[in-house]
Amino acid sequence: MPESAPTLVPHWIDGAEHPSASGRTAPVYDPALGLEAKRVVLADKDDVNAAVASAKAAFPAWSRLSLARRQAVLFTFRELLEARKGELAEIITAEHGKVLSDALGEITRGQEVVEFATGLAHHLKGEFSEQVSTDVDVYSTRHPLGVVGIISPFNFPAMVPAWFFPIAIAAGNTVVLKPSEKDPSAALWIAKLWKEAGLPDGVFTVLNGDKEAVDGLLEHPDVKAISFVGSTPIARYVYENGTANGKRVQALGGAKNHMLVLPDADLDLTADSAVNAGFGSAGERCMAISVVVAVEPVADDLIAKIVERIKTLRTGDGRRGCDMGPLVTREHRDKVASYIDVATADGATVVVDGREVKPDGDANGFWLGPTLIDRVPVTSPVYTDEIFGPVLAVVRVPSYEAGVDLINSSAFGNGTAVFTNDGGAARRFQKDIEVGMIGINVPIPVPVATFSFGGWKDSLFGDTKAHGAEGVRFYTQIKAITSRWLDPSHGGLNLGFPEN
Question: Where is the signal peptide (predicted)?
Answer without folding.
Answer: none
